[in-house]
Amino acid sequence: MNITIVGTGYVGLVSGTCFAETGVNVTCVDVDKQKIDNLNKGIIPIYEPGLESMVKRNTSKGRLFFTTSIKESLKEAEAIFIAVGTPPDEDGSADLQYVLSVAKEIGRYINQYTVIVTKSTVPIGTAKKVRAAVESEIKARAIELDFDVASNPEFLKEGAAIDDFLKPDRVVIGVESDRAKKIMRRLYNPFVLNNHPVIFMDIPSAEMTKYAANSMLATKISFMNDIANLCEIVGADVDNVRKGIGSDKRIGQYFIYPGTGYGGSCFPKDVQALIKTADYNNHPLSILKSVEEVNDRQKSVLFHKLVKHFDGDIKSKKIALWGLSFKPNTDDMREAPALVIIEKLVGEGADVYVYDPVAIDECKRRIGNKVHYCKDQYECLLDADALLIVTEWNEFKTPDMKVLDKLMNQTNIFDGRNIFSLADMEEQNVNYYSIGRKDILCKK
């Protein structure tokens, strides 16, 4: 089976590579010639565990190809996946210019029946716009050509995308004809054979499912962060509360860990887009608006704890920051809490030193030399007045506390991910602040 993936960003590259892993012949297309040249050399533009070796393996086996020519890629394609970016517009709605531009190109060059699949996260009703764009180009060519559109939203977690694609909780596919359903079923047959559910539905429902899923998870995060902040006020321990409610099967243990707020490429953008869709249809989603407001506030919680500790003045204080990416196992800093925290620290005159295992280059690209970049987590701490933990990378979870005490000017730890237990911190001579739990003050 031959397919085309248009877009070699996170979704497109992971999807194309994983389809190739199941035996499909995949051609990935991108307008960025430098990116395509690098991919043909085995140079991967994103950090995702396991992806580089999988790309090289499938390229060498002749199942995975990279090109800048969408025209050439369509010659034998039975399905064409649109996996380009849908960044938020100025008003928060999804910008479809890249999706529709690709749809028009497809309409200019397809010469046989194919299924055109939106893999990008797109608002409800986008499939109709894709169909119209393709039809207008076919009409301009003065030919008759049959095609179908479909929706196949992705549910990949950055840092675990390979497993998520090859061992999915579910595959959601929206189709409008039996012919399209047959092709999509054949493409996903390896997943059915491995007992992973493939759920067919109408296209608007498939488009809505993606937004509803991400918005529900974002709601859990913001709800738990709000509860954590209340726990601090009333003297409760959010860890105990989390265990208590997480044991209820209707709630579960996932996405109820308090922290510095959600970020990344999906949750912020998708929540905003669904809010805009609802507003456009005169059905305001009050809960989701609150979810967004709570998340915006939560990104500043650690900063406010720091400022309060220093009685409102952090000018010229040396602040160490561990973690830049919005979550572990990725270099993605889109909507990362670290960006908000750094901006506030620098704005107050603090001297900021940062470390992240993989996101240093991405941070430099985004903010330049506003901060000092360190080669490891301990270099940050030399003469530091405080340590802020923003991303819960595994290497941060068991630091040598004696080294921290020796290196730091003052051992003030602000744990934005609750990676340390209160019992352990009570045995240390530190000032320790976390989210939704009691503060531990130095006994010296």
Structure report:
The protein is α/β, with parallel strands linked by helices. The chain has 3 domains: 2-201, Rossmann fold, CATH 3.40.50.720; 211-297, N-(1-d-carboxylethyl)-l-norvaline Dehydrogenase, domain 2, CATH 1.10.1040.10; 299-433, NAD(P)-binding Rossmann-like Domain (Rossmann fold, 3-Layer(aba) Sandwich), CATH 3.40.50.720. It has 18 helices and 14 strands. It has helices spanning 10-21, 33-40, 51-60, 70-73, 97-109, 126-140, 161-166, 178-187, 189-193, 203-234, 238-246, 267-280, 286-298, 301-309, 337-347, 360-367, 401-407, 422-426, and strands spanning 2-6, 25-29, 64-67, 79-82, 115-118, 148-151, 171-174, 198-201, 318-322, 351-355, 372-373, 386-389, 412-415, 431-433. The strands form 3 sheets. The chain has a 6-stranded parallel sheet, with helices on both faces. α17 links the parallel β12 (386-389) and β13. 45% of the residues are buried. The model has no long low-confidence stretch (mean pLDDT 93).
Write the layout of secondary structure elements.
Blueprint (H helix, E strand, L loop, with lengths): L1 E5 L3 H12 L3 E5 L3 H8 L10 H10 L3 E4 L2 H4 L5 E4 L14 H13 L5 E4 L7 H15 L7 E4 L9 H6 L4 E4 L3 H10 L1 H5 L4 E4 L1 H32 L3 H9 L20 H14 L5 H13 L2 H9 L8 E5 L14 H11 L3 E5 L4 H8 L4 E2 L12 E4 L11 H7 L4 E4 L6 H5 L4 E3 L11
Parallel strand pairs: 1-2, 1-4, 2-3, 4-5, 5-6, 7-8, 9-10, 9-12, 10-11, 12-13, 13-14
